[in-house]
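Whiteboard transcription, Tuesday session. T.W. wrote the structure tokens on the left side:
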């Protein structure tokens, strides 16, 4: 594939994601997959800088998993105790493990405290992408205790023919709109 074609495909993907987010008035977007290694972090690291640049969007990545690809995007400067600036203008980063004050809270208060803090830190952003760990579906499976306006699902050749799609089923059960399905043919 030529470099120009790859660049055009990336622009089209970002344009479609931006359109879907705006059409659904989604601010909090969950990025999910049914298997590990589907390309969630690659999507965030490559598409979000383009989304911020092309559409002048202020983007926050809320990372619920540890990934060097995303933590490698951050710089040392920060305007906030928890939010880190990335190398890309318009894209900031926060990791759930950085919210140490939540560890002291009781289980009853933890969700309320996290949601209150999340609402406060995300108010200046146009869209917040929540990068979730891949989960197996059990009776008590819970999506993050954060607001979710919609989801983008990642797929790759690894999972396309699998009949069990736990995250997709969870999203449908909770009536969370699917804003996009990204086919990662490189994985």
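and on the right, the sequence the group agreed on:
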């Amino acid at each position: 594939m030529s470099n120009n074609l790859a660049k055009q495909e990336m622009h089209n993907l970002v344009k479609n994601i931006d359109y879907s987010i705006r059409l659904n008035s989604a601010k909090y977007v969950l990025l999910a997959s049914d298997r590990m290694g589907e390309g969630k972090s690659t999507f965030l690291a490559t598409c979000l800088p383009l989304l911020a640049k092309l559409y002048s969007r202020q983007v926050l990545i809320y990372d619920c998993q540890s990934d060097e690809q995303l933590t490698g995007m951050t710089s040392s400067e920060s305007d906030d105790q928890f939010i880190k600036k990335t190398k890309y203008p318009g894209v900031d980063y926060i990791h759930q493990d950085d919210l140490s004050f939540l560890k002291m809270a009781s289980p009853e208060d933890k969700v309320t405290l996290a949601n209150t803090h999340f609402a406060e830190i995300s108010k200046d952003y146009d869209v917040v992408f929540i990068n979730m760990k891949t989960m197996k579906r059990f009776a008590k499976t819970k999506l993050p205790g954060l607001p979710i306006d919609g989801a983008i699902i990642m797929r790759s050749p690894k999972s396309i023919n699998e009949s069990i799609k736990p995250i997709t089923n969870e999203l449908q059960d909770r009536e969370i709109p699917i804003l996009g399905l990204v086919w990662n043919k490189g994985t």
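Someone added at the bottom: Residues 54 and 117 are 29 Å apart (CA to CA).
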